[in-house]
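Appendix B: complex inputs.
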Amino acid sequence: MSENAKKDLTAEIKDLVVEFRTDYGVVQALNGLELEIERGKTLGLVGETGAGKTTTGLSLLRLIPNPPGVIVSGSIKLDGKDILSMGDKEMQAIRGKTVAMIFQDPMTSLDPVMTVEQQIAEVIKLHEEGGQAEALKRAREMLELVGIPGSRGGEYPHQFSGGMKQRVVIAMALACNPELLIADEPTTALDVTIQAQVLEMMKGLREKYNTSMLMITHDLGIVAEICDKVSVIYAGRVIEHGTLEDIFKNTRHPYTEGLFNSLPNLEDRQAELKPIKGLMPDPSNLPKGCAFCPRCDYAMDICKTEKPGRTYRSDTHYVECHLYNKDNIQEGKVKSR
Amino acid sequence: MNSVSAVKENEQISVKKKSQFVDVWKRLCRNKTAVLGLVIVSLLVLIGILSPIIFDYETQVIKTDYSSTLQPPSAEHPFGTDELGRDILIRTLYATSTSLSIGIVTVIVALAVGLVLGSAAGYFGGKVDMIIMRIMDIFLAIPGTLLAICIVASLGNSIMNLIIAQAVSATPKFARVVRGAVMTVRDSEYVEAARAIGAKDTTIIFHDVLPNSLAPIIVQTTLEVASVILSIAGLSFIGLGIPAPRPEWGAMLSGSRSYIRDYSYMCMFPGLAIMITILSLNLLGDGLRDALDPRLR
Amino acid sequence: MSTQPLLDVRNLKKYFSTPKGMLHAVDDVTFTIEKGKTLGVVGESGCGKSTTGRAILRLLEPTSGEVLFEGQDVVKLSKEEMRKKRTEMQIIFQDPFSSLNPRKTISQIIADPLKINKIITDPAKQLERVRELMEIVGLADRLINTYPHELDGGRRQRIGIARALALNPKFIVCDEPVSALDVSIQAQILNLMKELQKKMGLTYMFITHDLSVVNHFSDDIAVMYLGKLIEKAPSEELFANPTHPYTKALLSAIPVPSLDNRRERILLKGEITSPIEPPAACRFANRCPHATDRCRNGEPQLKEIRPGHFVSCFLSE
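Resulting structure:
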């Protein structure tokens, strides 16, 4: 779309194809993935295990393990600069500074033999001028920012609870005030009450620093809570994208609908769960047509043979499904919620 | 029921009634180095069995012949002859049976004892573990060769005593490996699941715990056969192993060391025999470990 | 109800000894489950919900207390008697990846309970029963000789369920049976378990940290906090009138996958009390927004504030 040029994008992925080439075959992790994150906004990337969520996050940092991972084609731009053509040195300068990542498990992403303030200071020293003392001071400030008393900075990770550790990880990610924060299931390992605290804190920080965020999650509840836009990913492609309103109230893709119907409804406990039948397709042997076709209740003949193209339902909302083809528009086939 | 039909549609996995043995065998065959190891080990076993039948002990293996001492390899004696005129090829082949049988018997004894003690210690933990493992520690604290020297020196120089000596020092090693392996498996949920369906401790140990602890045990077993063979060779080298004149690789090496400058072939062949045996056992052990794990298919 | 409950747990305690002192994992927990019903047990990690489930089955020996199963105290049974009792009380584990022996085929895993308890000894009949069980839980017949690692999480969990069902149990402890699964698969398994309950009259104790799942699945819900049962009520009642401050905070913290009716969030502050040698005070007092001196100096007891609704909090007295 022509208006894309006008948008202020922190990150833009175009037609990204990533493969993992193993002895047992080629796993097609991403098959033409497209993604846009606007400055200061949060994009939710929703999907199930194996859909390619984490691979997307790692591609933005160019951290896909190689071998076996290979970026086959496509482009990734951060702040308008193509990172795929960058040298390793240049890329290292970007990691942590322009884009930072929070991983799922706070227990394993901290170094157990370093105090937390040292770990945060390490990141600061890598990217910013100034000596050890200044870095440590900044580190303590960062801890205060995420709600940990600066005086606890001299403690080791094992002295913190799970929620506190995740705060430390977030403090570390934010230490250099990155343009883009990638959060890969940041609260999955945490309890609900702690999760609520962490999400609340992330919201506050995002507003304060105008950081763009990519929120990778499988939990539509978290998406509703914190995101501005949503991309639903299935078998390495974004199959539906839109604003929260678009996705939650005008659900179009049968898979997105299936995700909603699989969730127990808090308001109506008698409501029957309607699971999506079948399983995720084997990523080393994807169906020829639409990847969701074998599990889809609305599948037509064309779905088996042709991959659906992108159809815009509005300026903000697109879907990849034959149900909404130009000559095949079927309003209301997937009921809006 | 939606869920039933959903599952049935997916994927094709063939239903062949395949026995576990065939399965393991197939996986082993896919591993080239393991097959190489297996071929050499089988060859060695074959040699070990056949050589006492083919060669006459009195006239071909130990009979001295001063008319043909220290001959270099030739058509008549492909490996040459030693200082007493005995054919090195025949002696090397004959020694295979001695080394292999002692190695295997020793390891079987040590494995059996170590398996029982180690799994009891690992599975039950607490006091049982404490008592068994402290006793094992005492044995481990004494260097194996030294222990063997003491036993052989006090009980006399015979094959039986050699086996006892080697088994005593190998047992604690097995107990340790088995205990470690058992302990990692003991706390897994499938062991708890087995307990939940009413399985007895012995059933759990033999059906759930040990099969999943096999990998390190098998590797230890093959390595241990190799190390016992090596250590018997060492004992023979210092004259405490197999009593002369019965051929043994270590003893042959020892005998050849004074001729190493002029007649290097004498030590080369028994040395090579030791090397090939140990290498092939290790290859086989690694291959077996992989083949026994259905997850690595 | 006048009928005897299927399971009646009284003052159940399970302490673990640690270098720092006794860890009160389950501390004086009392509840009942009626036949054919589901009790959901919710709480955060470390609250003792899994330990409670395991102590009831005596996979962990309870420190003290009674577990009356059909009126009989299973804690007093000998090891051998307990082994036999387990045919009636089963468990489904959380992690379908670690709860199946990787060296056994599906048919071996499902046949094990039959073999071990000598329920069916003829191999041909065993196989027949295995096929029947696989049919019940929705596993295709062709999978019978595959190994667990060849299957996905959802299928593995079906195997776990089939294994538990093999003995025709009356009562099943479900320890987070769906939390390792993706949402679409989670719904498949939940539906299956509900259907089985209806068909076979099963009684469930459903342990989970996921409140929306427990609300959907259970008749009654018990909320645990640091080894204590702090609130128990029928599901609708609990969600409509949560009374304990912790329950309120917990319910408010659920991320709701909807843009409407966002609720006010109660954010908890303060450190979690250590479960090791806890003081005789309300264990939630440190994080409770309404805590008084009374809460810090004495332990509240579980009291019935409405029919079927039990709370242990001084504020609700």
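Chain B has twelve helices and no strands.
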